[in-house]
Every structure is written in C-alpha cells, then in structure tokens.
Design goal:
The complex is a heterodimer of chains A (226) and B (301).
Chain A (H helix, E strand, L loop, with lengths): L7 H30 L5 H13 L2 H12 L4 H9 L8 H26 L2 H9 L4 H12 L1 H16 L3 H7 L9 H10 L3 H29 L5
Helix pairs in contact in A: 1-5, 1-8, 1-10, 2-5, 3-9, 5-8, 5-9, 6-7, 8-11, 10-11
Chain B lengths: L1 E11 L2 E11 L4 E6 L5 H9 L6 E6 L2 E6 L7 E2 L2 H4 L2 E3 L11 H8 L3 H10 L15 H13 L5 E5 L7 H18 L2 E5 L3 H7 L2 E6 L2 E6 L1 H7 L8 E11 L2 E8 L2 E7 L1 H6 L5 E7 L2 E6 L11
Parallel strand pairs in B: 3-9, 3-10, 7-8, 8-9
Antiparallel strand pairs in B: 1-2, 1-4, 4-5, 5-6, 10-11, 12-13, 12-15, 13-14, 15-16
Helix pairs in contact in B: 3-5
The chains are: A mainly alpha (226), B alpha+beta (301).
C-alpha cells in the first residue's frame, strides 16, 4: 500500500510557484505603481476586483476559470489554435489559474510599499528631470526592497499552498498538475497516512520557515521611514 | 523675467480661500517668500516647479509659457516638472536614502565634473560616499542644495531650507547660499520666516497673507523704515509685572529670551501680562509701550 517518497509533486509545486511568482512580479510592479499614484474614482473598483481571490471560495474561482479557459471560450480556443495548448487539465492552465489566484498576494505588498515612499522623493526625482518609469526604477523599487521580498515570498508560499483552484482547473494528472497539496489529498483518500504525514510535515516546515522569514524582514525594515 | 499671474482655490485650516497672485520677478535676484503658515507660500513655489497646477492664469519664464489655463477648464498648457528644469530644495531635503551623497548628485545628472565642483563648493568632498541617514541636518541641506544645482537650473526654489537648523549652522549656510548665488548667478526664491535671513540674503520680500501678496518690498523698506524712529525695537509679550520696592518690573519674552525692564507708574497703568509690546530705548533707558498698528509684526512672516 505504501508508496516510496516521490519528490515529483513538490518539484511541480515549486515550479508552478516559481513561474507564478515571476509572472506576477512582472505584471504587478507596473499595476501597483499605477494604482499607488492614482486618485481615480475607478481605483477602489480595481482594487476590489484584484482582491476578490482572497475572499472567494477557490471553487467559485476554479469553476469560472474552468469555463473561461475551456476551448469553447475565446481565450481557450486561441491557446488551443495558436499555441496548440489546452488550458484545462494542463500545467499552463494551472499556471494561469495560479496567477489569478495569487494576484492580490503580490499586488498588495507592492502597492502598500509604494504608497509609503514619501511623495517628496518622487517629486524630487521629477524635478530632476526624471520620468515616472525612471523614478520607479531608480527611486521607488530600491526603497521598497522589504515589500518586494514580502510580495515574492508570500506569493511563492501561497501558490505552493493552493489546492482548490488547481484541482478544479487541472485535476490530478501525475507530472502535470498533481502538485504537493493535491498529492496529499489523494494519499489520504488512498489511506496512505504515512506518506501523507511526510508530505504534510514538509509543507508545514516550509510554510513556517517562510512566514518567519517574512516577519524578520518586516521587523528589520519597520523603522525605514521614521 | 518670471511672471506668475494665477488663481487657485486653497483649502485652509480655517476655511477655503482664493490664492491670487500677479507678480513679476526679475532674473538674478534672491526673493523671499514670507507669510504665516497656510498663506500659500509653498503652493506658490510648487506652482512654479510644476508640482501643483493653478486653477487658471499664466506662468511665464523668460518669454516661455510654462502654464496657461482658464477657469473650469483643463489647462491649455502645463509643462511637467521634468520640462521646467527648476532646481528645488525641499523642506526636509528629500534626499534619496539608498544613494550616497555623490549618488544623489549623479542621479540628477551624470556629469562628474559639475558634481566634483559642487562637492567642493559645498564642502562635501569628504562625505561623498556617505548615505544620507549618516549626515547631520546641515550636511543634508548642503547635499540637497548641490543636487538641485546639478542641472544648472536658471531658477532655484528653496522651501524653508534652513528652518530645521541651529543658529550657527543657519548663518554658515546663509553665507553658502550667498556664495552660490554670486558664483552661479542663479535666480533664487526662498520660503522663509526668519527676518534676519530675509535681511541678509534677499533683495525683495513677497509677504503672503491668505493667498494674496500683501506686501512687495525690499527687506529694508519692510522691516526698518516703516517701523519706528527708535534705534532698536523688539516685539515681545509681557509675561509678568512684578512690584519690587517702589518700582515695577515687567518680564518680557522676546523670541526665546526673557528680559526684565523697569517700568514707570504711567506704563504700569496701561500694561498688563499678555500684552504685545515693543521694547525700545529713550535716552539710553529701555522703554516699553504697547504694540501699535504702524509697527511691523514679525509674526506675519
């Protein structure tokens, strides 16, 4: 009954989390910059929209992603025809789903970090002839390193810990979509508690380490603007 | 020539008011922007820098229009701060905390030659590789000044540049500002409350009151000629009047100093603690009299 320890679900989890983190970082830096400087009336609606994954049950998100990504939807059809990739029950599909699901965990630390940068620093940079992009790159990002690290670490950890959305969009296909959290679910279903314990303890140790790291970082940089 | 002929609604602590200015400032001088807090001084500076837009009006510098707009409409022209190339020394300095002194200067412009020259001029050569958090207030002020000069601006705006420094440092940096002005010929506008600073540095004072310029004079005209005929006079507040034997002594606060002045029976009759007074001399004896309308009230700065 007992299987040997198989590292594949973990490698898959880390690959998914790593790629999600990179994609979200690239997407969220400009988005957070735009939101942090915006005083638009639309801003609260955008903020609410991107924060929805925090409060929605993963099943709701998973269900609509499934509908949205299937090859009967325009996006799914485009992927299927142009890139010859199915988004449902595939690694690409759970990657896209993870990006949606973990978006607020990257966006919020970045945005709040950017909002804490004193307005005078930005104005000083503009007055020295620098554009918004130059200011973002040379002044803002170097001054919010703790927020960048928090966003990256939390997004990575959160993606490793996700379950419902991946299960609904990706199912449990070995080597493709069976990530660690889903592997544990299956092990418990098969009553292989020993392996389930091993997998679970690894995830517990991993999550704890990550959170300790985040808190250490935050305490160290707390006094930055005082 | 700098023309600032604008209107802007401001939201003050005791109600909204309309800021309305129509001034022309000649090139090459040092002009003080004075007035009590919330009177629109900083807004005036920010409008020149392109950091705050007026509601309507015209800002023109050397024939080039920087802002033009009509009430209730999107401005026809409003150059961004990047295009105005104005040097600004912010209140609180706004140095980039992750860059060294030299890094702050080179971010403004990668011209190492000018950076070296400005480091020498402001006495910062030894501190070039130090980060701002390890600098004293006076040193930070110098870095902010040098950084603002890196792009060779024709116009330098300083927002209460020396207000956070002690008297000795203030005086040294005032000399430095004069030196910079002499060597670079840059037109300066300084927001300041300090009458001695205005007198020492500036050739013109724009006194703001509730968004309007209530006085536009030379410091001498504003402070001295208008005040009194006395040789010296200080405005103060009576804290206490004590009876000592047959005479009375008034304890008067002048700035941070307390002085005791003997007053005669007649003066005793009209003065009471809490009064604003002017202390002067008459025949070598100090006199105390009530503050009058003709006196210049330095608290307006």
């Amino acid at each position: 009954m007992n299987q040997h320890f198989d590292p594949e679900p973990f490698l898959l989890s880390f690959r998914l989390a790593g790629m999600t983190t990179v994609l979200l970082f690239l997407f969220c830096v400009p988005l957070a910059w735009a939101l942090s400087r915006s005083a638009s009336r639309v801003k609260p609606f955008i903020e609410a929209l991107v924060s929805m994954p925090i409060v929605l049950p993963p099943t709701v998100l998973g269900f609509y992603l499934l509908v949205f990504l299937s090859d009967r939807s325009p996006l799914g059809a485009w992927f299927s025809e142009v890139l010859h990739t199915d988004l449902v029950f595939s690694f690409e599909g759970i990657l896209l789903a993870s990006c949606v699901y973990s978006l607020p965990f990257m966006l919020q630390p970045l945005q709040s970090g950017m909002e804490q940068v004193p307005a005078k620093l930005l104005e000083a940079s503009y007055a020295l002839g620098k554009s918004g992009t130059q200011t973002l790159w040379h002044v803002v990002l170097p001054n919010i390193k703790p927020s960048l690290l928090t966003g990256v670490i939390i997004t990575f950890a959160h993606t490793v810990g996700e379950f419902g959305v991946v299960l609904m969009v990706g199912g449990s296909i070995q080597g493709k979509t069976r990530v660690a959290s889903i592997a544990i679910y299956e092990l418990v279903e098969m009553l292989d508690y020993k392996t389930a314990h091993i997998y679970s303890m690894i995830l517990i140790a991993f999550s704890f380490t990550v959170l300790v790291l985040v808190y250490i970082l935050n305490h160290r940089y707390k006094s930055l603007w005082r | 020539m700098i023309t600032v002929s604008v209107k802007k609604k401001l939201f003050g602590a005791d109600g909204d008011f309309l800021m309305e200015t129509d001034v022309h400032i000649a090139r090459g001088g040092i002009t003080a922007i004075a007035g009590s807090s919330g009177s629109g001084k900083t807004t005036f500076l920010r409008m020149l820098a392109g950091l705050t837009a007026p509601d309507e009006g015209l800002i023109e510098v050397d024939g080039e229009v920087w802002f033009r707009g009509e009430a209730g409409r999107k401005p026809k022209l409003n150059l961004g701060p990047q295009e105005r190339r104005v040097g600004i020394v912010f209140q609180g300095y706004a140095l980039f905390p992750h860059m060294t002194v030299l890094g702050n200067l080179l971010y403004a412009s990668p011209d190492r030659e000018i950076a070296e020259k400005l480091l020498v001029m402001t006495g910062l050569q030894q501190l070039r590789d130090v980060k701002p958090r390890n600098l004293s207030g006076g040193q930070k002020q110098r870095v902010a000044l040098a950084r603002a000069l890196m792009q060779r601006p024709g116009l330098l705006l300083l927002d209460e540049p020396l207000s956070a420094l002690d008297e000795r440092m203030k005086s040294m940096l005032q000399d430095e500002l004069l030196k910079v002005h002499r060597e670079l010929g840059v037109t300066m506008l300084i927001v300041t409350h300090d009458s001695s600073e205005i007198y020492k540095l500036c050739d013109r004072v724009l006194l703001f009151e509730k968004g309007r310029i209530s006085a536009d004079k030379s410091p001498r005209e504003l402070f001295v000629e208008r005040t009194t005929t006395q040789k010296f006079a200080f405005k103060g507040e009576i804290l206490d009047i004590k009876a000592v034997d047959a005479i009375h002594v008034a304890v008067v606060a002048i700035g941070n100093n307390l002085v005791e002045v003997v007053i005669d029976a007649e003066e005793k009759g009209v003065l009471k603690p809490g009064d604003s007074v002017v202390i002067g001399t008459k025949a070598f004896n100090p006199t105390v009299r009530k503050f009058e309308r003709g006196d210049f009230d330095f608290s307006r700065l």
